[in-house]
Amino acid sequence: MTSVGVLGATGAVGQRFIQLLDGHPDFDLSVLTASPASAGERYRDAAKWRLDTPIPDDVADITVRDTDPDAIPDDTDLLFSALPSDVGERVEPALCEAGFVVSSNSSNARVADDVPLVIPEVNADHLELIDVQREERGWDGALVKNPNCSTITMVPTLTALTQFGLERVHVSTLQAVSGAGYSGVTSMEILDNVVPHIGGEEAKMETESRKLLGEFTGDGVSWLDATVSASCNRVPTLDGHLENVFVETSEDVTPEDVAGAFEDAPTLDLPSAPDPLVEVFEEPDRPQPRLDRMLGDGMAVAAGGIQETDTGIQYNCLAHNTIRGAAGASLLNGELLARDGWL
Ligand SMILES: NC(=O)c1ccc[n+]([C@@H]2O[C@H](COP(=O)([O-])OP(=O)(O)OC[C@H]3O[C@@H](n4cnc5c(N)ncnc54)[C@H](OP(=O)(O)O)[C@@H]3O)[C@@H](O)[C@H]2O)c1
Questions:
Q1: Fewest CB atoms within 10 Å of the CB: 84, 175, 237, 314?
Q2: Judging by beta carbons within 10 Å of its beta carbon (0-12, 13-18, 19+), is residue 340 exposed, middle or buried?
Q3: Helix (H) or strand (E) holding 114
Q4: Ligand 1 mean position to 47 CA, how many Å?
Q5: Angle between helices 255-263 and 149-161 (to 10 degrees)
């Protein structure tokens, strides 16, 4: 078994990690960290558990540690990070320098030149950047990132369309409140409302997508030469980001070509990888967050409403933002790191 830990284990994403790691065939969870306010407490006392399955018995009594290299046992093979990005920016490099491999969900360093930003079904080869990172930073450990939840919803569909010469992407999102964390949006703000602004989200979609779809060149990533423009909206759903995507390609494509490309999207033989990766709906009113966010145990992307427009193709896609969009994404990256011998 691979020995793993969760950084920021008491938070919304940290709790998802614990839920997803329960009963994992290859990973054994024994290390939990959080802020100094929680360190020293039993997990059951430190965490305000908010998921609809109970805290796993073997986790509830683990003592929460400080998020500090000296507080983490040296024989921990892999750390999953759900830290706030300002904390991750400070602590993750220190952990990598101390020799730990960190699969991180935090937004810091996602577009740094020597940091692999990975969705295993899209760009597993970008993990090779770890060699560049270790060379440049002198680390024995490694830092690997997964993208933002709205980006990860769209990119598995876009990667299927690169074969048609992707030139321009416009996307408008309808994002669930859980994406802002438990206390991120108040009920007075979001009930009976839509908030047409999510700070920094549009830029993340525009940059992270192009890096993910870029090419590993041996010493870096050459970003996809396409334009991506995003408009992000917070809506009163609990989980599941729905996105309206408009693409322009250099080749003429039909809705049937697009549906076929989505259905052929690659799947991987990893414990948390869904099969199929993209579930295609013919019903024009699907996917919907409440009905479709748990496809593939929350790891699949759903697509539908595929149709021609005057400029190209339009479709809708959906994924569970705290599973495929957060903890599940880091977990899948961890499974890839283990499979490919990076631990
Ligand atoms: N929520 C989502 O859907 C989502 C999706 C994608 C990405 N993300 C990203 O994932 C990360 C975590 O988000 P979240 O919603 O889970 O946040 P959260 O609920 O606020 O949890 C934050 C976690 O970090 C710990 N922490 C806070 N300050 C710390 C410090 N100074 N040192 C060490 N640990 C500290 C907290 O511990 P205490 O309990 O002790 O305070 C808690 O365990 C963020 O970077 C966020 O941007 C979230």
A1: 84
A2: middle
A3: none
A4: 12
A5: 110
Report strand pairing: 78-81 vs 2-7.
parallel
CATH code for the structural domain at 149-321: 3.30.360.10
pLDDT of residue 182: 80
Instruction: Check residue 64 and give its pLDDT.
Output: 98
Whether 241 sits among the annotated catalytic residues: the reply is: yes
Ligand 1 centroid, distance to 39 Cα (angstroms): 15
Closest alpha carbon to 103 in 296, 326, 272: 326
- The catalytic residue among 126, 241, 317, 320 is 241
CB atoms within 10 A of CB 183: 7
Task: Give the burial string for 226-261 (b: 16+ CB within 10 Å, else e).
Answer: bebebebbbbbbebbbbbebbbbbeeebeeebbbeb
- What is the fold, at CATH topology level, of the domain defined by 2-147+326-339? Rossmann fold (3.40.50)
The residues with which 171 forms a beta bridge, in sequence order, are: 230, 245
Question: Which residue of the set 149, 232, 317, 320 is catalytic?
Answer: 149
Identify whether the C-beta of residue 105 lies closer than 8 Å to the C-beta of residue 326.
Answer: yes
How far is ligand 1, taken at its centre, from the CA of residue 321, in Å? Answer: 15
CA distance 169 to 189: 30
If the chain, 343 residues long, is cut into consecutive pieces of 10 residues, what is the mean pLDDT of each piece? 98 96 98 98 97 96 98 98 97 98 97 98 98 98 98 98 97 96 91 97 98 97 98 97 98 98 97 98 97 98 98 97 97 98 97
Q: What is the Cβ-side half-sphere exposure of residue 137, based on CA atoms within 13 angstroms?
A: 23
Give me the residue spans of the domains in the chain.
2-147+326-339, 149-321
Q: What pLDDT was estimated at residue 294?
A: 98
Residue 128: what residue type? E
Nearest Cα residue to 99 out of 56, 36, 66, 143: 143
Q: Strand ranges (DSSP E) for 64-117? A: 65-66, 78-81, 101-104
